[in-house]
Amino acid sequence: MSTIHAKRANEFVRDTEKVDRHDATFWSVRVKRDAMAHMLPEWENLREAASRIKKHTVTHLADYLEKFAENARQNGVHVHWAKDAAEYNDIVLKILNEHDVRKVVKSKSMLTEECGLNDSLIHHGIDVVETDLGERILQLMGIPPSHIVMPAIHITREQVMECFVDKGIVEKEGQKAADSMHGDRRVLEAEADPTFLTRCARFHLRENFMTADCGMTGANFGIAETGEVVVCTNEGNADMSTSIPPLHIVSMGIEKLIPDYKSMAVFQRLLARNGTGQPTTVYTSHFRKPRPGQEMHIILVDNGRSDILGNEDHWQTLKCMRCGACMNTCPVYRRSGGYSYTYFIPGPIGINLGMLKNPDVNFNNCSACSLCCSCDNVCPVKVDLSTQIYKWRQQLDSMHHADPMKKAMSEGMKVMFDHPGLYTSALRVAPVANCMPSFLTNLVMSPWTYGHSMPEFAKKSFHQLWKSGLDDHK
Amino acid sequence: MKIGLFIPCYVDALYPEVGVSTYKLLRSLGLDVYYPEKQTCCGQPMGNAGFQDKSRKLVESFDELFKGFDYVVAPSASCTSYVRFFHPEIAGHECEAAGKTVDLVEFLHDIMKVKSLPAKFPHKVSLHNSCHGVRELGLSSPTERNIPKFNKIKDLLQMVEGITVFEPERPDECCGFGGMFSIEEIGVSTKMGIDKLHRHIGTGAEFITGPDSSCLMHMQGIAAKRKLPVKFIHVAQILSAGL
After folding, report:
1. By the 8 A CB rule, do A289 and A296 touch?
2. Domain co-membership, A79 together with A207
3. Which of A120, A210, A217, A461 has a CA positioned 20 to 30 A from the CA of residue A88?
């Protein structure tokens, strides 16, 4: 009786030091987020406004998309439509080939992750360089992100040093990095000094920015009123990616749309406060039209989003702005890590998006929720995350993914609870279980006894106490 | 006022003293309290496991058993919230009883508006704000929200003579029970329980108390296995101490 998530999580929690560090790291983000929330008296109104704006936009999506595309075209931007990942990857490849692109620098985009863009480009001989520091570290290490906002936070600085040495970055940029800090290179290397590592990365990335033929960004928001996209980063890498290469390609999920600047003001206040506990990201960059001499493309990607819109129980996932707050607050995510989930987006929103994408694999994440409802209360756009997880569980049986043991237990409970007579007789014999030696019950009642001692049945149940004279009406 | 007493299955079998305390407490307020003997369970264990359909019959019979009362009172926040918020959906119609089902804390605090209690409990307790109590019934303000702080359980406990009430660090983080979650995700569930226990014990309290025996049972099982020095007591037992 174990899902893939449960099995991987059981492994993850074995290393107490690691799980405690992971938990503490993400809890500290939740604490920062709370501090930000409590600084704004209008916080709950902002959440309600954001939720309503998103609801309004996704329920009028066709109109806003047309408006957005029209305005973007008038700004001199090429607009493309992709119905799925394959079509999206083809469009990108076509644009790149038309411009004879050999190297692409990319700022962070979960959509490209969703569509498997990097693999597709590399397969076609195009060099792809992630420029978000965390994403770059993971790319060099050859592993996927474990969180959507802080993708490499589970990696220690010692591991980063090892990777940078391995990839020749320290050899090439180490001296420059040490000099820029007026430090001793050997000491900095030995200590895996974080500033030293970031300086190495900075010089390494600088060279890539200078030599790339195309810059790709995602989009945190698309503003229909003006046809522009907004990209929020802390490292300025989206700006670097777009300031030098002669070609800029934006990849945007169609649900990223908002109507106008007034709505942008609401989301701008919520995104970073929820995501990282900052009042705002360091850079909030608006891209409306190409620089002189530059070409700009926006690819609007559906890839299943229209189907979600028609799904009565789960359309609200389209309100999500990918801030990651639900992961940070999730007690299960914090203690199981991103890699325990079978979908590339973990945590409460990932459980739901994974089920919408591929239930035959991602049903394995439905166990990863104690239904504590904390995610519902942090979510800045009020997605009903835990309710949706509960609903998925109700569907697993008809999808043939129900756990046989849980099904058998539920059937047993049905028989017992539907028959009060049977239930009360069972209560009378239950205390017999107390007399069994604990090593035996521990064996029998496993897996409960993996973590717990057995609870003791009372000598007399409340039912029996009631019958034997508690009732003082008589 | 006619009160129907709902004693959820695991309280019935494992913690009948919680039921007795609840009964005595309600009687001490001069209420007419009845215990329909054909009651069993709220259905939540099946629902959380993904089989809420299997609880249809018991949902109907719950409504039948309890609809004649002015209020249905249960010493369990989680079962109460399941009845109130899930029964109508499972049944496919309005449920008269569900709308009148309240947790003991809500009942004392909001409906009876109790201002004093004769109880004495000269001990230090750490308050376990259980998830469904906080986030579904609103027994306290969820820490995620920016709303004025309140805690109805604490308000009631502080009427008890001699008591010192603490709240743990991360006062409303889940203890990891979650029904079948605790069996299916044993690793994470146990880790959540251990972390929660350490935060409760860290307050220096002798007892962990809360409105949900299910969370207490989970933590008690983990504490016993590790011989952790702390005792467990349901809020109803403290509020009725000395009756």
Report:
1. yes
2. no
3. A210
Answer whether residue A26 shows pLDDT above 90: yes
Min mean pLDDT across A159-173, A229-243, A404-418, B160-174 is at A404-418
Chain B nearest-CA distance from A346, in A, is: 15
Contacts of A455 in chain B (CB under 8 A): 14, 217, 220-221
Which of A170, A196, A211 finishes a domain?
A211
Alpha carbon of residue A148 to chain centroid: 4
Q: Which amino acid, A299? A: I
Burial of A35 (0-12, 13-18, 19+ CB in 10 A): exposed
Sign of CA dihedral A458, A460, A464, A465: negative
pLDDT at A307: 97
Closest-CA residue to A15 (of A337, A330, A347, A453): A337
User: Which chain A residue has its CA at the smallest distance from B28's CA?
Assistant: A472
Q: Are residues A427 and B9 in contact, defined by beta-carbon separation less than 8 angstroms?
A: no
Would the pLDDT of A348 be above 70? Answer: yes
Asked whether the predicted pLDDT for residue A165 surpasses 90, the reply is yes
Flag whether A404 is in a domain. Answer: no
With an 8 Å Cβ cutoff, is B170 touching chain A?
yes
Which of A448, A460, A465 has its CB closest to that of B183? A448
CATH at A301: 3.40.50.10420
Task: State the average pLDDT for chain B.
Answer: 97
pLDDT (tens digit, 9 = 90+) per residue, A423-464?
888 888 777 667 655 555 555 566 777 888 888 888 899 999
Measured distance CA(A293)–CA(B49) in Å, rounded:
59
A243 shares a domain with A307: yes
Residues A88, A223, single domain; the answer is yes
Residue A16's Cβ-count burial label (10 Å; 0-12, 13-18, 19+) is: exposed
Domain assignment present for residue A364? The answer is: no
Task: Please tell me if residue B237 touches chain A, with a CB cutoff of 8 Å.
Answer: no
Alpha helices, DSSP H only, in A142-260?
A: 157-166, 169-180, 185-190, 194-211, 237-243
Residues A309, A443 within the same domain: no
Q: Are both A161 and A203 inside the same structural domain?
A: yes
- Considering only alpha carbons, which residue of chain B is nearest residue A372? B131
pLDDT-above-90 percentage for chain A: 86
Q: Which of residues 15-54 of A touch B (CB under 8 A)?
A: 19, 23, 27, 34, 37-38, 40-41, 43-44
d(CA A293, CA B212): 66
Q: What is the mean pLDDT of residues B179-186?
A: 93
Copy the structure tokens of residue A318. 């389209």
Contacts of residue B46 in chain A, CB cutoff 8 Å?
410, 413-414
Give yes or no for A408 touching B (CB within 8 A): no
Same domain, residue pair A105 and A226: yes
**Domain total in chain A:** 3
pTM for the model stands at 0.95
Could you give the ipTM of this predicted complex?
A: 0.97
Section A106-128 average pLDDT? 96
Domain extents in chain B: 2-111, 124-239
| Residue A445 and residue A303 in one domain | no
**Are residues A101 and A45 located together in one domain of the fold?**
yes
Task: Tell me if the bond preceding B8 is cis, omega within 30° of 0.
Answer: no
A296 forms beta bridges with: A248
Among A284, A314, A344, which residue terminates a domain? A314
CA distance A256 to A428: 59
In this complex, do B221 and A471 lie within 8 Å of one another by their Cβ atoms? no
Task: Determine the distance from the C-alpha atom of residue B213 to the mean position of all C-alpha atoms in its chain, rounded to a whole number.
Answer: 6
Q: Is residue A75 part of a domain?
A: yes
Range of the domain at A258: 40-137+213-314
CA distance A284 to A217: 13
**Set of chain B residues whose Cβ sits within 8 Å of the Cβ of A454:** 221
Give the count of alpha carbons within 13 A of A257, CB side only: 29
Is there a domain that residue A18 lies in? Answer: no
